[in-house]
Amino acid sequence: MGPAGYDAQVYYSEWFSPAAWTDGTTDWFFDVSAPDLTSSIVETGIILAYVSLDGDLYSSAAVRPLPTYALNSNWSFLVHEPGGIEFTNDGVSVPLKTHLFRFILIPGNIPAKSASASGMGKKTASELRSMSYEQVCKLYNIPLK
Prior knowledge:
Elements: E1 11-12, E2 22-23, E3 28-33, H1 39-44, E4 46-52, E5 64-65, E6 68-70, E7 73-81, E8 84-89, E9 100-106, H2 125-130, H3 133-139
Antiparallel strand pairs: 1-9, 2-3, 3-8, 4-5, 4-9, 6-7, 7-8
């Protein structure tokens, strides 16, 4: 549900693990269905993605915004068409299936212009991307886990 006064919603996934990683020769990847990821969100909204890595230096409960560098490799995501997100890793060996991922989709009429009840104020796309996972969840009333 989006901030009060907006007729669109902020969409977020549950935390999920990859069923399998596909070897893309130089990268590992897996695809996730994201039916709420419309062409409008791709073109004018904001897509945020996060990872919680099993064996992370900080703890397995740490949440990192993507893209990030951890466990000796780069982690990222891309949208090659509306309705799906591909998560990537450039590690030498296959990543664990126990890593957790999540994405948040913010329609273009909500994100940068929203004033929230939590006091975060107006945020630009760049500011949203630099916020911690916890701050973004608080801003849009998204459960942390």
